[in-house]
Structure formats: C-alpha cells, structure tokens
Design brief:
By secondary structure, the protein is of the alpha/beta class. It has ten helices and seven strands. Helix 1 runs antiparallel to helix 9, helix 3 packs across helix 8 and helix 5 packs parallel to helix 6. The model has no long low-confidence stretch (mean pLDDT 92). One of its GO terms (biological process) is fatty acid elongation.
Amino acid sequence: MDLQWFAAGAGAVALLFIFYHFIRVLLNILGPYVFSQPIDLKKKAGAPWAVVTGATDGIGKSYSFELARRGFNIYLVSRTQSKLEQTKKEILQQYSNVEVRFATYDFTNPSPADYQKLLDKLNEVNIGILINNVGMFFEYPDVLHEIQGGIETLANVAVVNILPPTLLSAGILPQMVSRKAGIIVNIGSAAGAVPMAKWSVYSASKKYISWLTATLRKEYGHQGIIFQTITPLMVATKMAGSPDTSFFCPTSDAFAKSALNTIGNSSDTTGYITHQLEYEMMNLMPEFIIDKAVIRSSAKLREAALAKKEEKLLS
C-alpha cells in the first residue's frame, strides 16, 4: 500500500512538473506577443533621446527608425561617417519632427579613454533608451584555431560583443539613476543559449550579454530602470548573410517593431513570436541533437561564405 501511495504521489508530482513547464513555455511564447499590451515607452524612458549602436545596418537601423516613429530623438553610433550621414538623412525624410545626431566609433577599439570621449558626447543629451546592438561575427563558423583572420578576428569579436554593452551602460546609467527612469536593451543572440561548436567566442560573448543584463537588473531594477535582453534567431540582415525572409526569418523592420513592443513585458525574450517558438522548442531538445544541428548549419554557412568569396574573386 505504501508503495502504491508513493508511486501515485511521484506520478502526481511528475504531472505537475510537466504542467508547470508547459504553462511556462506557453506564457513565454504568447505572453509578450499576444496577451500583453505595449507599455508607454516615453513614460518609462523618462527622457526624449534614444541611443542606438550599430545603427546604420540591419537590426540597429530598424530600431532607430522605429524609435523615431514613436517620437524619440535618435543618437546614432556606428563606425562609418558616410553611412551615419545617410541614415540620419533617411530618418529625417520620414520623421521630420525628431532630432537626429550621430557619433562615429570603431567598436574594435577597446580604449577606455576613447570610450570616455564617446560617452561625453552622448551625455550631452538626456538619454531615455540605450539600445546596445552593435555586434560582430566571424566570416564563417570554424574551430577556434582556424577562424578566418586568426587571433585578430577572435579579439575583435570578443571586444565588439562584450565591451559596448558594459561600458556604455556604465557611462549612461548615472543620468538614468538620477531621474529613476530609463531603458537599456542589450541585443544578444540565441547562440548564447547553449555552447555552440565552431561559434566559440561569438556564442560565449552572447552568453555574457544575457548574464550582464540579468546582473544589472538586480543592481538597478529597483530604481525604475528597465533592463532587457533580446536573443534573436535568424533575421534577414547582412550580418546573417542576407537570407530570404520567411515565417521564421523576419525582416529587421518587423523584428524591431515586435521587439520594442516587448519592453516592460518580458525581461529576456527573443523579440519575435516565431523566434520564441523556435527557442522554446530548442530548449526542450537534448543537447546532443542541438549539437548535431549546429554542426550541420555551420557547415552550410561555411560553404556558402566560401562560395561567395570565390565568386567575388572570379568577377
């Protein structure tokens, strides 16, 4: 009899465990994207300016346009002045009611002194939102010692993916703390969810972003500042190899609009409902299955990159 009661109790616990995880997964997928209404970003930001790094291409550019559409002044930060000037022009053509400034910075430069000069410029305005978007990937995935570009590429990927969210957050937080309002969004990647073979430093650096943001949330969340990690999967951008758009691969514009709507409703999410579906499915899979899928996709990415490189040489 005791054994039967034990078996029944263990079965009930197992069912409750499965039910709990089912509800959690369902809420992760539907909560920020279906059930929740977007918050008032201007009220939560507490200031009229939004700073976006990596702002002249892909997700960063789309965040800049979407924030301008919502009435924020935009401070663009990127490496190439001509691209910054063009992006500023394009934003003002569509949204003449906002102000746009820009600052050039090569994020492969780790100099604290140069970061301080950048921060001095940025802190001339009242920053309500900081989008730490700038990032860097390899030319194609490979094992660590054979990464194209060698240790210089490895160093650049580590520096670009780790330092900007760390130092820019540290330099802009004081004004957010003083008014007890502000939003910091750090763009990570689903590549940081599990250790990914042949993605080495990129995967590890994206895990750092999630960990850093979670830590900052504990340090400053009680002061009225929102911290969010966005961990996208495939978005149709140049950095991703310009893939065709699909159900699981949105345009950067669609992604940015969706991701901005999740601020305040989810502290750590992919930013797009179909990405969240993929992410939750990935978390349910045994790691060895994910490893096999990563190896296959990495081989395809490497093959495509080398074919494109050869095509350029022949043209």
